[in-house]
Amino acid sequence: MSADRVRAPFGRREVAVTAREHHGPYVVLRVRDDDGPRPQAGQFYMLTAAARWGGGVAERPFLPRALSVMRAPRASAELQFLLEAVGPGTERLCELAAGDGIHLVGPLGVGFRAPRELRRAILVGGGVGIAPLAILQDELAGPGPAPATILGFRDGAHARGAGLLDGPRIATDDGGAGHHGLVTDLLEDELRLDRRAEVYACGPPAMLEAVRMMCAACEVPAQLALESGMACGYGACFGCVVHTREGFIRLCVDGPVLDAARLDSVLAGGATG
Question: pTM higher than 0.90, yes or no?
């Protein structure tokens, strides 16, 4: 993984959905992007359905949805995205099937960097925040210690999404699968075993703040993929401004991946789930 971002081609392009898969409440969309570069783990795309992207006649269209890329196999032009229908925009994207068109802009933003000082990687994901950790697993495969992967979900149904990653430990709020409790309980176990690690996390703001605080207390570096409302992806709308120790930044161009040490608090920074 390189610290330099992969640059998006200018403008949006229409690509074809090649498959839709269901994993519990989650949907994985596979698309073929022949004209775009391969993204880095942690980068994202702005997606809109090519048809019926809006509320109806005389109604304003939906804003694009910012989605982390979940996988980008090296041997093909395929991109994979993980979605959950939580509103009209994501519901429309989840309806798309093979042969439907989708507009995308990307890859955008700054992704994850390789572990410093040969540290062991620990991947921590919550809900749809598991998406960028799947491609990160792919990037980290090879010589050296295999990353530990721990994932948290609200219940057993959502925990079916864990099958999208290799060999994770699982925590669920209701005890429906794996550890009955928080994903940070499992992170505490991992850090107790070995603090020569670097943590990579993506998930709800409360989870990210707990990870940030735990890593700070243990003096373990962490890279956090934050979420915030994004309307453009290019930094023009200032809709995704978050506060860091150096001042305000636009998450879509200076993130979404930030070093945890740059933040006094995830919850105070303006990021949203």
Answer: yes
